[in-house]
Amino acid sequence: MDDNITSLQQAKYAFAKENNIEPCTNDKCGFSGCTCGKKCGCNVIATSEMLETCDPCAEFKRKQAAENACKAREA
Questions:
Q1: What count of other Cβ atoms lies within 10 Å of the Cβ of residue 26?
Q2: pTM (2 d.p.)
Q3: Residue ranges of the alpha helices (H) in 1-75?
Q4: What is the C-alpha separation between 53 and 40, in angstroms, rounded?
Q5: CA 48, CA 64: separation in Å to the nearest integer?
Q6: CA 57 to CA 46: how far, in whole Å?
């Protein structure tokens, strides 16, 4: 991998290698555990919000939102 690759891209490639799958190559997808490979369409459409269109990314975003809500209630 070249020196200009981001830590997110590195994480995507590492995840893909560990799971013997094709890595997500969508630079707009923010989920290192994405299993969609080259067909990932997350955040491709320009909107004011991050649009998670694939199931693994959407599920991750839901879990993250739930954890954040729990932390906010505890604070």
A1: 22
A2: 0.62
A3: 7-19, 55-74
A4: 8
A5: 19
A6: 17
Could you give the CA distance from residue 52 to residue 58 in angstroms, rounded to a whole number?
A: 5
Tokens of 3: 């020196």
Count of other CB atoms within 10 angstroms of residue 34: 25
> Does residue 32 contact residue 13 with C-beta atoms inside 8 Å?
no
**pLDDT tens for residues 15-34?**
999 999 999 998 888 889 89
| 74 Cβ contact partners less than 8 Å away, ≥ 6 residues apart | none
In the numeric block, which tokens belong to residue 64? 């993250």
- In order of 22, 69, 70, the CA distances from 29 in angstroms are 15, 22, 25
